[in-house]
Queue: 2 jobs
Job 1
Amino acid sequence: MMDDQDPIQAERADVIRVQQLRWRFLLELYRMNKQAHAGTIQSVSAEEVGTRIGLLETRDLEQAYAYLADAGLVELVGFGPLLRITRTGIDEVEEAYARPDQRTDHLPPLNIIHNVIYGGVHGSTVQQGTTQSTQTVDNSQSVDWARLREILREVRTAAEDLPAEQRDEVLADVIALDAQSRSPRPKAAIVRECLTSLRSILGNLAGNTAGNIAAAPLIDWIRAHEWLLK
């Protein structure tokens, strides 16, 4: 029976990996476009985007941007190839940030992709189907979720100036936490893992201005809700 399931699990893992690569490519192109001067027409090599997100395998890179181009989210503007994000692509990203638990027109929900890839947020050992994985946050009405969402918006903005690796980790946690804060039954394990991860990442960036700006209000919030980490 196990032998019959293994190919399915392997295919599922590969599908999720491909979906995550598409999302990472599109998000990086979106960030690069935001950093460009107003009025500048974006023209970025696919290889540069791939290098920035650690996608160095040519076949994976070509498949990622080819899918996004077919979906109308990016446009080929020159040989190389040179790419730019389209207005549809920008709307896709911003829609996903606004509703990370919902599928966009072309891509799966951001929070699901990040939760699966990072094992329930950055390597959590909690397994689906256990009592711990379905445990919800107790006394959720006493949690200041609204303030947390305000802080997460600040963290997301500050994260744009972080090194690429830390930025992607922070954004993954922010997306998952934001989704949990809006859920009628927030999952205790996911909330705990995200808060612990963010505190650790931002705390290790003491010399980074963006890290300092993002860390202070979040750490204050965590201190006021220390019981969530237990």
Note: The chain has a mean pLDDT of 77.
Job 2
Amino acid sequence: MKRIYNYFRQVSPVNTRLSTVFLLLIAGILVTVPARAQLVSVDLTEASPETSIEWIRTQVEDVINKEALSKESNAARHLLHYLDRAMGTYIKGMPDHSARHMQIFIQKVERLQHAHRVSEETCVLLIDASIIVIEKLNEERASTGTASTLFDNDASKGVINDETPQASLSNSPNPFNPTTTIHYSLTEATQATLTVYDLTGREVHQLVNGFKEAGTHQVTFDASSLPSGTYLYRLVTPENQVVQKMVLLK
């Protein structure tokens, strides 16, 4: 399926959305925001950061051609600038710098989303793809002995350590507006914290901090005062920590 997708991109490099739609039809996936995010995960999880950044740049160029952005606008220049910086620093062997440029790129995309200059679906697609790149870059950092961060290791699967997970974590609905319920399960009574972060790693709100009994728990997260975008929430116990992502669409 990936070969078919790449073939259509080569045949029609300008209209990359055509190949995306074609692949969706083959896979039998409905064209919704979660489905498009799933498509990104399928296409990019096996790709190198360099290939993934190049793919994101193609999507941005497509946005510039088809949406309310001019190539000469500051917004368009900023998007391409930080992608180019991410690519350049990665090629130079600096994945930590590349990850920071990708985080700034996400911030720029979210600003366009808040200003309604780019569609929400397109923004979610770009942000999800960028998160995958950041995870890969941080995996490379971890393999070289660099200290871990919120995005390190296998955050796309929810577990960010190498031990058997002692807790589970999810939220519904997702995407949400403006509230969502976060569910977490503990296999034993333990100290636990549950904290929400934005994509820069800044703490947004701490929902849980205390001793919790074994079993399933839930807490409501109210994002009424927050802008639309992707947020991370992390459950930490003495045994391990788990991270998931959620999307606020206003």
Note: The chain has seven helices and seven strands.
